[in-house]
Specification:
- Residues 43-254 form the YgjP-like metallopeptidase domain.
- The protein folds into two domains: 8-90, no CATH class; 103-261, Zincin-like.
- The chain is 36% helix and 25% strand.
- It has helices spanning 65-74, 76-90, 143-170, 212-227, 233-242, 246-255, 257-261; strands at residues 2-3, 11-18, 21-30, 46-49, 55-60, 103-106, 109-117, 124-128, 131-136, 183-185, 191-195, 201-203.
- A hairpin with a 2-residue loop joins β6 and β7.
- It starts with a strand and ends with a helix.
Length: 263
């Protein structure tokens, strides 16, 4: 299952001051694995800023509080800059009203929604010159609902076609899969895709808004679940074998998730 975001473990909450702002962060402590010589393997303190502006610090369970704080302060500027960038993304995340001028996405590119009235035309949606053009026969009280329905259906049709093309293109890499897996396009709020125990795939139509490389990542992720049903080390090795740069592609997709899933 490819989720939009995930966290694990117990957490502690702290904060530090940067400039005139208090920046909060969570500490997730993890047990240190035993080495082959029965000596503890040293685990570093790592810091991650999530697209939803959560700051998560992962540390060994026995790490000193002061050591954690110093590690955070050494990267304080980096944390602040990352938060500033993600906040810039979130400023654009507002509920869609399906009116002219709103931003829409398709295969990683931005398009401006334009709605026109034409009494002689059938209701349609098409891309033209950087715009997603919606034509209605006439404007009435149901205008917003009609535009939303037309746009959502347009995305679904495009998603079914493009996902099928990408699945067929990627399948030769998934040598452990027999035949062409069936898939459904199904709206999901927290997942990009999933794979059933029988190997049937479900893909989120909102994924069509992302670059093709991100679509490929989700499809390959789910194909790997046909061989490995959980996120074991074997699963991640299999995914890395077919997409060595999956981590950066996943980060790119997660960074835009709020915008792509917004409707």
């Amino acid at each position: 299952m490819t989720s939009v975001n995930s966290k694990e473990g117990n957490k502690e909450e702290y904060a530090f001051i940067y400039g005139d702002e208090a920046v909060s962060y969570e500490v997730v402590r993890k047990s240190v694995p035993q080495g082959s010589s029965h000596q503890k393997v040293k685990r570093k303190i790592t810091i991650k800023v999530h697209p939803n502006c959560e700051v998560v610090v992962t540390s060994p369970e026995d790490a000193n509080r002061e050591d954690i704080h110093q590690a955070v302060m050494k990267r304080a500027k980096w944390i602040y800059d990352a938060l500033k960038e993600f906040r810039g993304h979130l400023e654009y995340v507002q509920a869609k009203h399906y009116v002219s001028g709103e931003m829409q996405f398709y295969l990683g590119r931005r398009y401006v929604l334009k709605i026109v009235e034409d009494a002689d035309a059938l209701p349609t949606v098409k891309m033209t010159r950087g715009k997603l053009l919606v034509t209605l026969t006439r404007f009435n009280d149901d205008k917003t609902a009609m535009v939303r329905a037309l746009v959502c259906n347009w995305y679904k049709v495009r998603a079914e076609r493009i996902f099928h093309e990408r699945l067929s293109e990627l399948l030769p890499q998934a040598t452990w899969v027999d035949g062409l897996p069936s898939f459904r396009v199904l709206p999901m709020t927290k997942q990009w895709g999933s794979c059933s125990a029988k190997g049937n795939l479900m893909l989120n139509p909102h994924l069509i808004k992302a670059p093709k490389e991100c679509i490929d990542y989700v499809i390959l992720h789910e194909l790997c679940h046909i061989a490995e049903h959980n996120h074991s080390d074997k699963f991640w090795r299999l995914l890395t074998s077919v997409m060595p740069n999956w981590k950066e592609v996943k980060n790119r997709l997660d960074g835009m998730a709020e915008l792509y899933l917004n409707e």
